[in-house]
Amino acid sequence: MNEKTMTEEQHYAEVIAEESICTSENLVFEKTNVLTDTPMHYCPGCGHGVAHRLIAEAIAELDIQEKTIGVAPVGCSVFMYNYMDIDMTEAPHGRASAVATGIKRVLPDKYVFSYQGDGDLAAIGTGETIHTCNRGENILIVFINNGIYGMTGGQMAPTTLVGMKSTTTPFGREVEVMGYPLKITELIAQLPGVYYCTRVAVNNPVNVRKAKKAILNGFKYQELKKGLSFVEIVSNCPSNWKMTPVDSNKWMEENMFSFYPLGDLKVPSNPPKADKGEKL
Questions:
Q1: Which among 110, 156, 196, 227 is least surrounded, fewest beta carbons within 10 Å?
Q2: In order of start, what are the domains of the chain with their CATH numbers?
Q3: For residues 47 and 125, what is the distance between their CA atoms, to the nearest angstrom?
């Protein structure tokens, strides 16, 4: 670092100290203590990091940190337990909802959620997912849909769009060979055991706020013991899509959102109301 840069930094430090800019009144963002200080391993531009922060903030605002148990899958979020200061367990590939079911039945007063990708939830764990939802297990499932297998090398997932390239569909997904993309959230919304089902995204500030509200609802509804809450987050995968973060978000908005439209698919007729940070 050269002398000029050092002098500028010292000057700014003195200004901040003299004017007391860093005060609680001027604070616009503060990391929740539910998130640990462990650097996340996700690729630049990936939506997983934002989704993790929203879950952590929801837990903090509801003051349920000591009562929450998360289930991490095999996939990109396999190390999720390193990033949140809550009780978490690992599940075999595709079995996160089954593990969450067991935890909730043994510890019914806990807030239980699973966090799963599209390969984990909609392919390897399709059976567990459908039956967990149909039984109406009183848990929250957070489903990350980026249209591809991430950690395993970018293979086609059930959610891969027609014509979308992957390592196993280098010329694009062909309906005649690979079939149609699976809209599993629409399927799940029809099941009687599902109390709340919605699809959100984390690609811009407006959608981030909506996603956080959906996650808050998913946790709150466990108090009612009315059934399962399902929150799909449509996300990007810059690395396996072979795009920059900016381009991947643009591609997602132009292609993913038309096939996986954002919005509520199933909501309670008389949803409970609670202020920010207040339990039901």
A1: 110
A2: 32-266 (3.40.50.970)
A3: 22
